[in-house]
Specification:
Elements: H1 6-43, H2 47-61, H3 65-78, H4 85-110, H5 114-122, H6 127-157, H7 169-180, H8 183-216
Helix pairs in contact: 1-2, 1-4, 1-7, 1-8, 2-4, 3-4, 4-6, 5-6, 6-8, 7-8
Length: 217
Amino acid sequence: MVDFSLWDIVRNLLLAARWTIVLSLIAFIGGGLVGGLLLVARLGGRRWVDRMVGRYVQLFQGTPLLMQLFLSYFGLGLFGIKASVWVSVSVALTLYTSAYLTEIWRGCVAAIPKGQWEASQSLALSFGEQLRYVILPQALKIAVPPTVGFLVQVIKGTALASVVGFVELTRAGNMISNVTYAPFTVFSCVALLYFALCYPISLYAKTLERKLNVARR
């Protein structure tokens, strides 16, 4: 048993929390870019594209994130791709995030009255112009709160990356616990750090939702 003070435990967990934040940002930004492209493709009007994107969303929403991490970590090697744990975890979380954001944003676009599409068509706007000038600005107000709220799920989802050896907050907590033999203290600190990361985002999402609801009235 190694004698660690509470400050030593917290300091080491804070160092590991950096990678939780970085991984969350990679997954969220990458997932947002992929999700945005999938959304535009789905709205393009081609039925077979809509079906393919729908199957993609169902695949990632209908399977556990843990399994997706395993498939990404062990599966890339089957195709001759030598990927580090960083790359495999980032790929899995990006695809997972993109599937959920695509569906969230599709619902927000669907909430826009059909008359807005018809009005923009009457102005002889192209599909891209309809999205850019009419539909997306309105959908953005609806999409911001659930999108920000989903970031909390992404942060918590990074904890599963520990099972493939990625040293983030949960993995670091497990390693410190094995050394100090103080699992209750260590994982209490881990839980508090996750709370410190997630609660302000949840609070901000609720604040945005209230403001945007007032603005739409």
